[in-house]
Every structure is written in structure tokens, then in C-alpha cells.
């Protein structure tokens, strides 16, 4: 029932570039930490409930909860086995970060990159809450989002738009707010893809060699915020890190995530990112997805293979218990109230269909078509408007529009997609307006308001003459339409996505930074004839538009990103001033690809079977590179105009002298020994096999032993003897200097300084300013500026507000690799506050 072609278009399974199992260099100096009550009271309470539940489980029931039942085997993108004896159904996991993939009557939210552009904690939270309500309403346990990996090392990164921003601080805030929102509605969030999955090319095989400082200061940073926010699950990524696949990687999973960051939840493999039974179990994986894809006789790396490994003593019982404790603790932490039934199937659109899709079995009502959209269109429209970045507004007369005599709408990107908004599978085309990228991080649009439709409606209301031209290659038609209009609005796009789909030879990552579908020529043609040309861009990230910045006829440029289902309405709100533009660009607009420095995408590898990458730029990506190398950007990070103007004054710095010292005070001591929950009976192998007469679904992954093959060596590649003794060691572990609590050492979050600034609206319209706080950490190895604070400040004309930013110990520290700890260096430190990293208005030094 699941032909190969369907595997190829689903975006989850990775078949081509996976290295053969067993060729990994087994590790290990970082044994797996076990859950404890190291975290907030929600984790403690959940831990106690989980301990009670897990203690009742048999070996195969435990294994069931760790392993997916197979690709397309069940009702969700991923479904684990269940515990029928206790009436506990398997976990239902669903894509994706901007809404529910593959279902109807659910919303298509703005992409992560858009909510980052709002710089609004409130909107980040509200989007999370609304998404959580929708997943919950369909009966989903785990939403596979939000995304902090890719962080956005390279501007062409195919999945950058699913995440937030190449700035780790902004991404960290967005992660925490999104997770808080999702989980407040009873759905476990999943922080993904952990970690260094920074490009789509070679994602399943590339070995990223990364130094410890870059890891901590850049890529791990937002995941620390996710853990601090109480995230219930983390998805390990496809790539390797320092020689070992992420999902088997003791350094990133055991040492960094579970020990240093004190993560109490569970790690899920990306679909097909698990490669061995023991390496993943001892390396810190807790849930295998989609569950099948391993060797015979179990067709799985876990399932029966894990049961066998535990019975043979290759995987100690405490490690299995810890996997299940982590899964159930996350469940009890987040799931309050009655757990809803799963009421849809991602694999069919019909009401009646197979419950077990790959087996084509058990036909019944699978899609109840439950409408979960509520009033979420309102927050979607608001985010769409408030994430639109007004990059240029040449004359204040250009925007906002006020009953123009005529408008000409030009470009395919303004139009309703022919065939409907979901005509292209996984949204992999740009035949109409682009409102999300493509791949598994998509949702079905319930509807899509195109810019042309919304602008036409508005024009009719205002008595404005409306004209509309499609066809990006017919430049004379575009010019003819534009030349007589009082305003010409020209639309262009550049999309990106996941590499299981290529568009125009772009294999997920963009091949270049120019607009698609003749967009640059179209803009130039329109601007050559109309002195009031407004450019609207729907792009996955930066494009090269310096020509438009300097062009005298281009009076305004707006980046609208991937705004979701309300695209046209959001845009009209901004263009006509019903919403005040507050979007600020969450990435830097360079003048060339070379401007982004050493952070370059690897398109080809000299060793294509074993591709490897070092990140030579270290922490210097995006604006960290531009500012440190004095490269002038077309538009700098944080830039975005308003319809009014603001002034800054009275920067004051207050020191909290009760917290001092270069290193944070350490949480002392060590953990307890690894606990066991219930006992496993080794004597009788029969009891770990399927009950007599059990009617198996096929194909399907079960936790039971196959006694015919029990004495072969199927599970042991790498063999248990390849691992050092520590990998199995249940004795207490020391608490790390940088660890001790959820998110790391709690002293990292002590407030050392409070910075206050007065912001005034100096124009005659109300507006929202986003004052940004940048820190100079000093010395030669730091970027000139790092973002460490922002606020959303609504102001009436003439109004002044005082805005405060707290600077924590973490905000002012660098990672000291030798000491394995955060340290406030002796370098002179300063703060700057302003409207973007390129527009710093006030400076002060920090009296350390
Ligand atoms: C494991 O889960 C499957 C699927 O939900 C179920 O049929 C089976 O009975 C479960 N096995 C045990 C031991 O509970
Ligand atoms: C990973 O590799 C980098 C580059 O070779 C090295 O600097 C770093 O120490 C390694 N990290 C670990 C944990 O081995
Ligand atoms: C056990 O494994 C053998 C060999 O792969 C296979 O023929 C048999 O069907 C398996 N039994 C079960 C119950 O899966
Ligand atoms: C279900 O409908 C959506 C939206 O129309 C479409 O994109 C998708 O391909 C359909 N899926 C199946 C399995 O027919
Ligand atoms: C799946 O099962 C249905 C109902 O039993 C049947 O009509 C259909 O032909 C089957 N499809 C395939 C591909 O076997
Ligand atoms: C714009 O023009 C296209 C092509 O003629 C047409 O299909 C579409 O309906 C028009 N849009 C509006 C809003 O009039
Ligand atoms: C960049 O890629 C897009 C999409 O493939 C293509 O349309 C465009 O022509 C390319 N630009 C250049 C300069 O090659
Ligand atoms: C701007 O538009 C006018 C038409 O109004 C045109 O004559 C002029 O050449 C354009 N300027 C540029 C730089 O294209
Ligand atoms: C400057 O800010 C401080 C702290 O917010 C405040 O106490 C003081 O009154 C302000 N001074 C002026 C001149 O506004
Ligand atoms: C399992 O592996 C061990 C060690 O490599 C070997 O001695 C033994 O014969 C193998 N057993 C089977 C059944 O292949
Ligand atoms: C700043 O820190 C103080 C003390 O920790 C806290 O009371 C206050 O709420 C914080 N303010 C902001 C804006 O986070
Ligand atoms: C603040 O510092 C930055 C960076 O050194 C500088 O570009 C800017 O001009 C300074 N602003 C003021 C008001 O001194």
C-alpha cells in the first residue's frame, strides 16, 4: 500500500544517502543521564505519575512506547505502540511547525520566520496557543515543532523559514514562547532538528565538525531556551556531528542535552535518522520514528530488537526504563484533562478508510473532519500584518495608501494559485502567490486569500481603479499595465523547502539569492515606467535587492515572508495603514552571497559518500559577520520602518551588585544512581512473545521477540563489546559546572544589569517601535554586537515610554571550553540600544 514513490514524496524517510549501519565509530565517554526531579515542579509532579505508571509495565509494553509502528502503519505521521492492558493508546505525532500537515479544517499559520519578524513575544505565544488547540482538537499528542535547527547558518538554507532567525537569542525567545503556547493546550512540543542540520544538501550523511564554543554560543543556545521552557520532546537530526549520527551521538544527546541542559523529556529520531540498536539506545535516543526501516527479523532497530537487546543485557534495564520515564513524564507534564481521540488520518482524505494504511486494514470512519480553526484566522491575519517588514518607504506619501486613483497589480506572486492553494503537493511550486515554503513543514491551506483578491476588494471599496496583470515573462504587458497607474504594486517570490523535492533544480536549499520566475526583471521593468512602484516580496529569506533600495522609482519595498492563509488581508492591512507596520527583518539582506562570508552552503563534496563540513566562520554568521567585517548590508538585521518616527533618549544602566564573579556559582553534588521501575523476568522468553492467537497486522512493528532468530546477532552491530563500560554504568553522575537545572545552571539566569531607555513617538501617527539591545562582549573572538533584548512598544503620537531590558549572566558570558563553563571574560563590555544593528542610537559601558 505504500509504494516507493509515496516514501519519496513524504519528506520523512531518507533512503538514499544513509551510511550503512555498523560503519560508525562507536563512541563513548558520555553515558546517558537518567531523568530525575531536576527541574520545575511540573516535572517533579509528572515524574511521580510517570514512575507509578512505568512501574506497572512489562518489558514489551515499555518497548512498545519507545518504537513507532511503521511508516504509514497507523493514524498519524508517527504512532508508537500502545499498552492495551492499561487502556493507554499509542502516541500520535504529527508535522509540523506551522500547523497540522495532511488534514482538513485546520489552519495554515504564518511560518516561523514571520513570527520572528514580529519581534512580539505576545504573538509568538498566541500562535503557539492556537496551534496547540488545533493539534489537540485532532487528537494529536506531539506537535513536531518548533524549529531551531536549521538556525540559518546559510541564507539559502532550505528549511530556514520553518525556524525563526539566524540570531540565537531571537530564536531562543521564539522557541520558549511557542513551546509555552503549544504545551499550555495539552500538546507536547518537539524542539527540532537537534542539531546542526543547517543545510538540505547531504543532510542525511554530512559530518559536521564543530568546536565547542560555536556549539554553545550559537547552535545550542535556542535549544537551551526550549529546555528551560519545559519542552517535552526534542527531535534529533539526520546529520552527523563529529563523526557520529545525531540520534546516536552521546556528546550532543547525553552530555549536552540531558546532562548540561538538564532535559527531562524524550528524544525522538527524525524519520529514518536512527541507524543502530545499541548506538542509539546508549547514545541517548528515547523514541524511534517511524519505527520500521531496520534489519530483519524485526524490520526495526528497536521494537523486538530492543526487547532482545534488553534481555541479552546489551541495553541495561535502567536505560529502557529511562526512555519510557522520559516519554511518560512529558506526557503527564503536558497532558491535563481528558486525552482526546485521534479523529483523522493523514493518509486519506475520504471519511472512510483504513486505520492501518500500509496494511490497508480495518476500514472504518477515519476522518471525522473536525473543524479546529476556531477564530484563529484573526491571529493569523494579525501576525501576517505585523511580520511584514517595511524595508523602504521613500516618500512618506508612498505608504500608507489612501484611496489612490488607480492601482496596478503585477506578477504571478499576487495571484490565486491555479488549481487551488493546495494544488501542488507539499506546496512545491510558485505558480501563484507563495504563502509558505515546501516540504514536510507545511499544512494544507483551508483557504488562501491572495493579494490580488484582497487588493481588488479594497479598491472597490475605495473607488480605486483596479488592474491586474499576470505572466512574469511578458515584460511589455507588465509595463503597459504599470505605466498609467498611480501606484504599481509588483510581486515577486523565492521559495525553499526540504530536499526530497527539487523545484527547477533547487534541491531544498536555494541555488542562488535572486528572485524566481523572472522576478528581478519584472520589478525593473515596472520601475522603469512607474515612479510610484511598490515591491512586495514573498521569500524564504534574503534576496539580492540592492538595485531596488537605490532605485528612485521604487518608493516602497515590503518583505511579507510566508504569511499563511490570510496573506492578502494581512498585506492590505499594512499597505493601507489599518495595521501599523512593526515587522523587523530577522536576517541580514546582503548585497551578494559572498557578503555572508565563510558560512557557505556545501553543494558538492570532494568525498560525496562521506561528506564533511567544518563551520570555519565559528560564531560569525549573518549580522555577526557583517558587523565584524564592516560589510554594509542592503538592509541590516533588525531593520524595519514604521509610518511614524521614534527617538531614543536617557540610556541608564543599573547594576545588581548582589550577583558577582566571573563564573556562576555551581550546583554542587551528583545525581542519584539510575533507578529501575519494575522488574524484567529473564527466565521465560515465551512471555516476551506475542500472545497465542494474536492477529498481527502486516506490515507493522511489534515489541515481541522472534524466538526462531533469538540467538543470532541481529541487534549487535555495533556489538556491545564495542562500547566502553561507562556506557552501561548506572552509578551516580557528577553535576556539570554549566548544568544543574532545566536549561543549565540556574545562576546563568541571574539578572546582572538592567538597562533602561526612553522611546518617544516623534511623528503624528500611532506606531509600534521595537527597541533592540545589543551587547558588545569585547575581545577579538566576539562579534561586535549580539542581540540580547527587544521589546514591542506601542506609542501614541508624542508619547514616551521607558523600556527596561534585563541582562542575565548568560547574556554576558562566553563559553570557556577548557573549564566547560560559561565565563564573563575580563574584556570591556558595552551595550547599545537602537532600531536595528545598523541604527544604534545610544551606547553605554557596563560597569563590571
Ligand atoms: C503494542 O502495541 C500494539 C499496537 O498498538 C498492540 O497491538 C500490542 O498489543 C502492544 N503490545 C503490548 C505488549 O502491549
Ligand atoms: C568536535 O570536533 C571539533 C573539530 O575537530 C573539535 O574542536 C571538538 O573538540 C570536537 N568535539 C568533541 C566533543 O569531541
Ligand atoms: C521470525 O523470523 C523468521 C526469519 O526472519 C521469519 O521467517 C519469521 O516469520 C519470524 N516470525 C515472526 C513471528 O515474525
Ligand atoms: C488530500 O487533499 C489535499 C488538499 O486538497 C491534497 O493536497 C492531498 O494531496 C490529498 N491527499 C490525498 C491522499 O488524496
Ligand atoms: C484496500 O482495501 C479495500 C477494502 O477492503 C479494497 O477495496 C481495496 O481494493 C484495497 N486496496 C488495495 C490497494 O489493495
Ligand atoms: C487577475 O488576472 C488573472 C488572469 O487574467 C485572473 O485569473 C484573476 O482572476 C485576476 N484577479 C483578480 C483579483 O481580478
Ligand atoms: C536563481 O534560481 C531561480 C530558481 O531556480 C531561477 O529562476 C533564477 O533564474 C536563478 N537566478 C540566476 C541568476 O541564475
Ligand atoms: C522612472 O519613471 C519614469 C516614468 O515616470 C521614467 O521616465 C524614468 O526613466 C524612470 N526612472 C528610472 C531610473 O527608471
Ligand atoms: C531617565 O531614566 C531614569 C530611569 O528610568 C528616570 O528615573 C529618569 O527620570 C529619566 N530622566 C529623564 C531626564 O527623563
Ligand atoms: C554471534 O557473534 C559472536 C561473536 O562475534 C559469535 O561468536 C557467534 O557465533 C555469533 N552467533 C551467531 C548465532 O551468529
Ligand atoms: C527583570 O528582572 C527583575 C528581577 O529579576 C524582574 O523582577 C523583572 O520582572 C524583570 N523584568 C523584565 C522586563 O524581564
Ligand atoms: C554607538 O556605538 C556604535 C558602535 O560603536 C556606533 O556605531 C554608534 O555611532 C554609537 N552611537 C552613539 C550615539 O555614540
Automatic annotation (TrEMBL):
Protein name: beta-glucosidase
EC number from the UniProt entry: 3.2.1.21
InterPro entries: Cellulose_deg_GH3 (IPR050288), Fn3-like (IPR026891), GH (IPR017853), Glyco_hydro_3_AS (IPR019800), Glyco_hydro_3_C (IPR002772), Glyco_hydro_3_C_sf (IPR036881), Glyco_hydro_3_N (IPR001764), Glyco_hydro_3_N_sf (IPR036962)
Alphabetical keyword list: Carbohydrate metabolism, Glycoprotein, Glycosidase, Hydrolase, Polysaccharide degradation, Signal
GO terms of biological process kind: glucan catabolic process
Organism: Podospora australis
Segments forming domain Fibronectin type III-like: 769-837
UniProt keyword Glycoprotein present: yes
Amino acid at each position: 500500500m505504500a509504494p516507493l514513490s509515496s516514501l519519496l514524496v513524504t519528506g520523512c524517510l531518507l533512503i538514499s544517502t544513509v551510511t550503512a549501519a555498523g560503519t560508525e565509530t562507536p563512541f563513548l565517554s558520555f553515558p546517558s543521564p537518567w531523568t530525575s526531579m531536576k527541574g520545575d515542579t511540573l516535572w517533579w509532579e509528572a515524574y511521580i505519575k510517570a514512575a507509578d505508571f512505568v512501574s506497572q509495565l512489562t518489558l514489551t509494553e515499555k518497548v512498545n512506547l519507545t518504537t513507532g509502528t511503521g511508516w504509514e502503519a497507523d493514524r498519524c505521521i508517527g504512532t508508537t505502540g500502545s499498552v492495551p492492558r492499561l487502556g493507554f493508546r499509542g502516541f500520535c505525532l504529527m508535522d509540523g511547525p506551522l500547523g497540522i500537515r495532511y488534514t482538513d479544517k485546520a489552519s495554515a499559520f504564518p511560518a516561523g520566520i514571520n513570527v520572528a519578524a514580529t519581534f512580539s513575544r505576545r504573538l509568538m505565544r498566541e500562535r503557539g496557543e492556537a496551534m496547540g488547540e488545533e493539534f489537540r482538537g485532532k487528537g494529536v499528542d506531539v506537535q513536531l515543532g518548533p524549529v531551531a535547527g536549521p538556525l540559518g547558518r546559510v541564507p539559502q538554507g532550505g528549511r530556514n523559514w520553518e525556524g525563526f532567525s539566524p540570531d540565537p537569542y531571537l530564536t531562543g525567545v521564539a522557541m520558549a514562547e511557542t513551546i509555552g503556547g503549544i504545551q499550555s493546550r495539552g500538546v507536547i512540543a518537539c524542539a527540532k532538528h537537534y542539531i546542526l542540520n543547517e543545510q538540505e544538501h547531504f543532510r542525511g550523511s554530512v559530518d559536521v565538525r564543530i568546536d565547542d564554543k560555536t556549539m554553545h554560543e550559537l547552535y545550542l543556545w535556542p535549544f537551551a531556551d526550549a529546555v528551560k521552557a519545559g519542552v517535552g520532546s526534542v527531535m534529533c537530526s539526520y546529520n552527523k556531528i563529529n563523526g557520529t549520527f545525531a540520534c546516536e551521538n552521546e556528546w550532543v544527546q547525553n552530555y549536552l542535552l540531558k546532562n548540561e541542559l538538564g532535559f527531562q523529556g524524550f528524544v525522538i529520531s527524525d524519520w529514518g535518522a536512527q541507524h543502530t540498536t545499541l548506538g542509539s539506545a546508549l547514545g541517548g535516543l528515547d523514541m524511534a520514528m517511524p519505527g520500521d526501516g531496520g534489519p530483519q527479523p524485526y524490520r526495526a532497530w528497536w521494537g523486538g530488537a530492543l526487547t532482545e537487546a534488553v534481555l541479552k543485557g546489551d541495553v541495561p534495564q535502567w536505560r529502557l526504563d529511562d526512555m519510557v520515564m522520559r516519554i511518560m513524564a512529558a506526557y503527564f507534564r503536558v497532558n491535563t484533562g481528558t486525552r482526546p481521540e485521534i479523529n483523522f488520518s493523514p493518509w486519506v482524505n475520504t471519511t472512510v478508510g483504513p486505520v492501518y494504511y500500509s496494511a490497508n486494514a480495518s476500514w472504518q470512519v477515519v476522518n471525522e473532519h473536525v473543524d479546529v480553526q476556531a477564530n484563529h484566522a484573526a491571529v493569523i491575519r494579525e501576525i501576517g500584518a505585523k511580520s511584514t517588514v517595511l524595508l523602504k518607504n521613500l516618500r512618506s506619501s508612498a505608504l500608507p495608501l489612501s484611496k489612490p486613483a488607480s492601482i496596478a497589480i503585477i506578477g504571478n506572486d499576487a495571484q490565486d494559485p491555479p488549481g487551488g492553494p493546495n494544488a501542488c503537493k507539499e506546496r512545491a511550486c510558485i505558480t501563484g502567490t507563495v504563502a509558505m515554503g515546501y516540504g514536510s513543514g507545511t499544512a494544507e491551506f483551508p483557504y488562501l486569500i491572495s493579494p490580488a483578491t484582497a487588493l481588488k476588494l479594497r479598491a472597490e471599496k475605495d473607488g480605486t481603479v483596479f488592474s491586474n496583470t499576470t505572466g512574469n515573462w511578458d515584460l511589455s504587458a507588465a509595463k503597459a499595465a504599470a505605466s498609467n497607474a498611480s501606484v504599481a504594486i509588483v510581486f515577486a517570490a523565492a521559495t525553499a523547502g526540504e530536499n526530497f523535492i527539487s523545484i527547477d533544480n533547487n534541491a531544498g536549499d536555494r541555488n542562488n539569492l535572486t528572485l524566481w520566475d523572472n522576478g528581478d526583471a519584472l520589478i525593473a521593468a515596472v520601475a522603469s515606467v512607474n515612479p510610484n512602484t511598490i515591491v512586495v516580496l514573498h521569500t524564504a529569506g534574503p534576496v539580492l535587492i540592492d538595485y531596488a533600495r537605490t532605485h528612485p522609482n521604487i518608493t516602497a519595498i515590503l518583505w511579507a515572508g510566508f504569511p499563511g492563509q490570510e496573506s492578502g488581508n494581512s498585506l492590505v492591512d499594512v499597505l493601507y495603514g489599518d495595521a501599523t507596520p512593526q515587522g523587523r527583518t530577522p536576517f541580514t539582506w546582503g548585497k551578494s552571497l559572498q557578503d555572508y562570508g565563510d558560512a557557505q552552503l556545501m553543494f558538492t563534496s570532494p568525498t560525496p559518500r562521506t561528506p564533511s563540513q567544518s563551520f570555519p566562520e565559528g560564531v560569525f554568521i549573518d549580522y555577526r559577520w557583517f558587523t565584524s567585517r564592516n560589510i554594509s548590508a542592503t538592509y541590516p538585521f533588525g531593520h524595519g520602518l514604521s509610518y511614524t518616527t521614534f527617538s531614543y533618549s536617557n540610556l541608564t544602566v543599573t547594576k545588581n551588585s548582589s550577583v558577582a564573579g566571573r563564573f556562576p556559582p555551581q550546583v554542587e553534588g551528583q545525581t542519584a544512581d539510575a533507578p529501575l521501575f519494575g522488574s524484567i523476568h529473564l527466565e521465560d522468553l515465551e512471555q516476551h512473545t506475542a500472545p497465542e492467537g494474536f492477529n498481527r497486522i502486516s506490515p507493522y512493528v511489534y515489541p515481541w521477540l522472534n524466538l526462531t532468530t533469538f540467538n543470532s546477532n541481529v541487534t549487535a552491530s555495533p556489538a556491545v563489546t564495542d562500547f566502553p563500560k561507562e556506557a552501561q554504568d548506572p552509578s551516580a553522575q557528577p553535576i556539570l559546572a554549566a548544568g544543574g537545572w532545566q536549561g543549565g545552571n540556574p545562576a546563568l539566569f541571574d539578572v546582572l544589569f538592567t538597562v533602561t531607555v526612553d522611546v518617544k513617538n516623534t511623528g503624528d501617527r500611532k506606531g509600534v517601535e521595537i527597541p533592540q539591545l545589543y551587547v558588545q562582549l569585547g575581545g577579538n573572538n566576539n562579534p561586535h554586537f549580539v542581540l540580547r533584548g527587544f521589546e514591542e512598544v506601542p506609542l501614541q503620537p508624542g508619547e514616551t515610554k521607558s523600556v527596561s531590558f534585563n541582562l542575565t549572566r548568560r547574556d554576558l558570558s562566553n563559553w570557556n571550553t577548557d573549564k566547560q563553563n560559561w565565563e564573563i571574560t575580563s574584556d570591556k563590555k558595552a551595550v547599545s540600544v537602537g532600531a536595528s544593528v545598523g541604527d544604534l542610537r545610544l551606547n553605554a559601558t557596563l560597569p563590571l
